[in-house]
């Protein structure tokens, strides 16, 4: 039995599963670890490759484990799934991660710095608020339609919905008006929060030279340009422009069999 050269680590909230193998793939250990034991255990191992699925906390663990001298590799979960040999459990997942990381053609996700993750929070928060705004608009539009009030679709006409709710002369039932006012006030509050985030993004766009260059492209504004700089991997990750387009989901999805190619648009 040789020395461990690669460790597959199945991440979790509390109990982690580690699968160690030598250079030939022979199993060295299978071990369960509590969260507070992970770094201490890996610190006691010789320098090796530690592979994980690119899940929510993977970038944090990649940074922490890299400080111990190990090489970290993050694998998209979809690329790990084919290597699960039996029923899904933590032990099988850790082994699958270990085996997938040893494939010469495997693609990995570049670990992000804490600063890059922090900069991305504004976009995820904005996306959440926009979804909530859409839900409130649809709810308000649907309720008002039940009373015969129809307003054109689109965020630009939302103000008319709110005006109808707060207009004392509108023919809304007294029982419905206070409840609809709750929806309208929530909608206004969310719109105000989205506006704050938009101003923050616009301020970032003015200070980043890369964002400024992206904004010279027709149709690219401060939000899209800043999102590309913040969320996209480093340009060196892509060998050609088409690879970046595939990462964005703009290239046709291939679906072929028996020599017949049926491309499907994505995005």
Question: What features would you describe in this structure?
Answer:
The structure is a single chain. The chain is α/β, with parallel strands linked by helices and 267 residues long. It has 2 domains: 6-101, YqgF/RNase H-like domain (Nucleotidyltransferase, domain 5); 114-248, no CATH class. Helices cover 48% and strands 13% of the residues. A 5-stranded mixed sheet has the order 3-2-1-4-5.
Instruction: For the record, give the distance between the C-alpha atoms at the N and C termini, rounded to a whole number.
Output: 48 Å
Average pLDDT number: 89
The largest beta-sheet arranges its strands as 3-2-1-4-5
Reported for the largest beta sheet, the result is:
5 strands, mixed
Backbone CA Rg: 25 Å
Number of domains: 2
Low-confidence stretches: none
Describe the secondary structure blueprint for this structure:
Blueprint: E1 6-10, E2 15-21, E3 27-34, H1 38-43, E4 49-53, H2 58-66, E5 71-75, H3 77-80, H4 90-101, H5 114-146, H6 158-166, H7 177-207, H8 209-214, H9 222-231, H10 241-248, E6 256-257, E7 260-261
Parallel strand pairs: 1-4, 4-5
Antiparallel strand pairs: 1-2, 2-3, 6-7
How would you concisely characterize the structure shown here?
The chain is 48% helix and 13% strand.
């Amino acid at each position: 039995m040789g020395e461990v050269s690669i460790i597959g680590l199945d991440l979790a909230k509390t109990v982690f599963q580690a699968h160690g193998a030598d250079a030939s793939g022979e199993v060295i250990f299978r071990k369960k670890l509590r969260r507070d034991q992970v770094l201490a255990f890996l610190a006691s191992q010789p320098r090796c490759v530690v592979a994980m699925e690119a899940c929510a906390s993977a970038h944090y663990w990649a940074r922490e484990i890299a400080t111990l001298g190990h090489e970290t590799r993050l694998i998209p979960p979809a690329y790990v799934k084919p290597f699960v040999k039996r029923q899904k459990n933590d032990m099988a997942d850790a082994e699958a991660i270990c085996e997938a990381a040893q494939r010469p053609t495997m693609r990995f996700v570049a670990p992000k710095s804490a600063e890059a993750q922090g900069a991305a929070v504004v976009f995820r928060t904005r996306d959440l608020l926009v979804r909530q705004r859409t839900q409130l608009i649809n709810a308000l539009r649907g309720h008002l339609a039940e009373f015969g009030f129809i307003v054109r679709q689109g965020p630009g006409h939302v103000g008319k919905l709110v005006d109808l709710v707060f207009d004392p002369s509108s023919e809304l039932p007294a029982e419905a008006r206070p409840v609809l006012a709750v929806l309208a006030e929530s909608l206004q509050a969310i719109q105000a929060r989205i506006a704050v985030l938009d101003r923050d993004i616009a301020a970032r766009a003015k200070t980043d030279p890369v964002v400024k260059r992206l904004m010279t492209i027709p149709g690219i504004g401060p939000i899209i340009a800043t999102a590309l700089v913040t969320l996209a991997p480093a340009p060196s990750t892509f060998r050609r422009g088409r690879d970046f387009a595939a990462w964005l989901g703009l290239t046709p999805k291939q679906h072929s069999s028996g020599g017949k190619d049926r491309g499907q648009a994505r995005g």
